[in-house]
Amino acid sequence: MKTFRIVIWVAVLIVAGVLGAITLYPKKSSDVVAEAPFGVPFTLISQSGQPITEQALRGKPTALFFGFTHCPEVCPTTLFELNGWLEKVDPKGDKLQAYFVTVDPERDTPEIMNAYVSNVSKRITGISGSPEKIAEVIKGFRVYAKKVPVDEKDPNGDYTMDHTASVFLLDSAGRFSGTIAYGENPDTAVKKLENLVSKG
């Protein structure tokens, strides 16, 4: 019985020690996560038809937006506004980069992405790929995207996409640095991009 009590007390002390360490050093774990690049490795296709990987999100601070070309309002508005913010914060185009990743690869081929994005901006690069690879990226970057039939009675007919409407901000190492929400105050959005540039 005495041995049993000793074993119990040792177990209690070990658990208390572990909990104490977690309490005393909570930032260490979060710092490790923050040091890792956001998202997952990928090999997709840029609007010019060239392969593009996650390494494109390194070297410069990045604005990253997920959407689709058939989007009626959120995507064209966001791309237009983002282009304006980029021009204001980085007029020479050497401090910031931006990418628009489709969540609708079945319709958004590289050619269609090129025509769509080029019509709005020379500063933003469209990215497409196979449905399987795009699905991996959507999941890896924690983006919400769901196909929604236009007519519920015809689930295999025309559709739209529900998706995350925020712009992700990544530092030059590809680490998550914040978001710009859809409908964000323009001055706030510009300030966020300025802070992103200053952070590097």
Report what the structure shows:
With 200 residues, this protein is of the alpha+beta class. It has a single domain, classed as Glutaredoxin (3-Layer(aba) Sandwich). The chain is 41% helix and 22% strand. The protein is built from 6 helices and 9 strands, in the order H-H-E-E-E-H-E-H-E-H-E-E-E-E-H. It has a 7-stranded mixed β-sheet. A hairpin with a 4-residue loop joins strand 1 and strand 2. Helix 3 crosses helix 6. The longest helix has 23 residues. The radius of gyration is 22 Å and the shape is globular. The N terminus is likely disordered. Belongs to the SCO1/2 family. One of its GO terms (molecular function) is metal ion binding. It holds the Pfam family SCO1-SenC. Keywords: Copper, Disulfide bond, Metal-binding. InterPro entries: SCO1/SenC, Thioredoxin-like_sf.
